[in-house]
Design goal:
7 helices; mainly alpha; two-stranded antiparallel sheet
Length: 264
Amino acid sequence: MVINTNSGAIRGSRMLAESTGRLNKALARLASGSKLVEPQDDAAGMAVTAKFDAQIGRNTSVQNNLTSALSYSQTQDGFLQKVGKALDRMSELATLALDSTKSSGDKANYNTEFTDLKNYISDIGLKDFNGVSLFSGTGLSVTKDSDGGTWTINASALNGSDVTTVIGTFTATTANAVATLKTAIESVATHRAKIGANIQRLQFTQEQVGILNENLAASVSRIKDVNVADESTQYARYNILVQSGTAMLAQANLLPNNALRLLQ
């Protein structure tokens, strides 16, 4: 029996410190919802989740870029739809102007509307989307993945040789007006088909990036997120150990008092 060294109290103090540390860690995990409160909890897992979280953030930016490109293409298609309607009306006017029973005044009226529609199409060719020309004939590069990869969407040139130049060289009363307008209508239809392909690919790419982010988030969750049911069980266990360890340490500190009985 000794007084200066209380081995039971020392051991009890050590075990109480361990239980207290584990209890505090369980509290931190439950409060944060994450198993990785500190790097030493899972050093490799924390490195993996850091990379995945960064990739998820980049993918979110990619989705924003794709949304802008989709809006750009949909705006193009909306304008081309109106151009198609204008060309349809122009072809009707050119056909009406072929009627020999029409007076020169009637044909002049047809030509007035025809000219206004040509100017309308030319004006559409100058439109832009957020400062970017819609019909410059240059394909835009679109971000497709988190690594910075890009692809170029199909271009559309409305003020080039595709539409405006063709319809800018004749009037409603020109002999071959109808044939030329048929060519212009086919050209617009071809451009709408290209833009439709752009929209289709943009939508598929959006879905692909969304699925990738979903799977990355699931992977991060498996590594990082705490299982509340399991952690609550561990918390209850460590809480009991801390309380019992505190009580036992108090009892161990009383053991040297037994030595006093020998002196009585």
